[in-house]
Amino acid sequence: MKKEASLATRMGATIVFAGFAGLILAACATTPPITGPSDKPSAPAATLSKEEPQAPIVTRGPKKRVAVIRFQDKSAYGRGRLGGAVQDILTTELAKSGLFILISRGDDLDLVLDEQDLAKTDIAKKGTGPKSGEILGLNAIVTGAVSQFGVKQKSANYMLGSSKTQTAEATVDIRVVDATNGQLIFADSGTGIYEASSTRVLGIGGSQGYDETLEGKALRASIAKFIDNLIRRMEAIPWSGKVAAVDADEITINAGRKTGLVIGDRLRVFGAGREVIDPDTKLSLGRKPGKEKGEIVVSDFFGEDAAVCRRVTGEGFAVNDIVKLAR
Q: Please, which pLDDT band fits residue 323 given cuts at 50, 70 and 90?
């Protein structure tokens, strides 16, 4: 009897131990940290399934010269440091599209064109916006602000473990300004959420402090909401270049192979024109095109991004004349 009781006791202990071990193994199977975009309605567009690919963005005509300047950080959380992160992310995304020439000259560019400078000098007023953009030969300036940013943390304790979730939410406002006349041509905003979670069971599993990468991931999620629309709208901006030098029938322009021109492209040449100011508001109505002078055709390329053209029709071409693709 004693042997039978002892055997039963050992078998019972074995069953309990096996069940306990199974519980630990099952818990351990869920302990690795889980990170990824939130499944809430405002989750980033990047979570779209591969079965539903978006239509590719195609371009026709020369690439536009674009500058992305530092965004303002209006959030209490960021303390002024999130604006540079948005500038870097947007510059990268636009460069990856292959549709634009991104102009970046470090601190010098921000000093000339940053958001605070545009606000102080009022880019739409006479002589401000066009001159700033024309200094760098830009077609468009991208700017904006981080209007909201916050991180929430939620923890829960259970009988055998605990869990922790960090959620970052960001809202980015964006504006695109026509560099030739200072007019606002596009505005949009996006809100993105990103979550990171971890679980611990019986002391086993991922422990997580503050995840500093949440900031960049939430900003990317917000930018993903408008990046495709931004690219399409910027592609609709009319392209123009300038005459850089004139030598008899040989005309040099400030755009070449990098811009997307090809030998044989025909370009219409216009006088530089002049800016027109509204007499009531004192704001720029844009630059009135100059008189069309004739046509030139691309015959060769040189340097980083320049082209040599020959005269087809017209006369009186001069430095700073505007060139546009002939359709």
A: very high
Q: Which of 200, 216, 235 is the last residue of a domain?
A: 235
Label residue 206 by pLDDT band (50, 70, 90). low
Considering the domain architecture, whether residues 42 and 109 belong to the same structural domain is answered as yes
Name the amino acid, one letter, at 51: E
Does the predicted model carry a pTM greater than 0.70?
A: no
Same domain, 225 and 252: no
In a domain, 24, yes or no: no
Number of compact structural domains in the chain: 2
Q: Is the pLDDT score of 305 beyond 60?
A: yes
Distances (CA, A) of 304 to 11, 64, 101, 173, 301: 82, 15, 12, 34, 9
pLDDT tens digits for 32-87? 343 444 444 443 333 333 333 444 444 456 999 999 988 999 988 867 789 999 99
In the three-class reduction of DSSP (H, G, I as helix; E, B as strand; rest coil), residue 120 is classed as helix
Here the CATH number for the domain that contains residue 67 is 3.40.50.10070
Please name which of 124, 114, 46, 47 lies closest in space to residue 86, comparing C-alpha atoms. Answer: 114
318 belongs to a structural domain: yes
Q: Token digits for 300?
A: 């060769």
Residue 301 lies inside a defined structural domain of this protein? yes
Rounded Cα–Cα distance for residues 73 and 82 (Å): 6
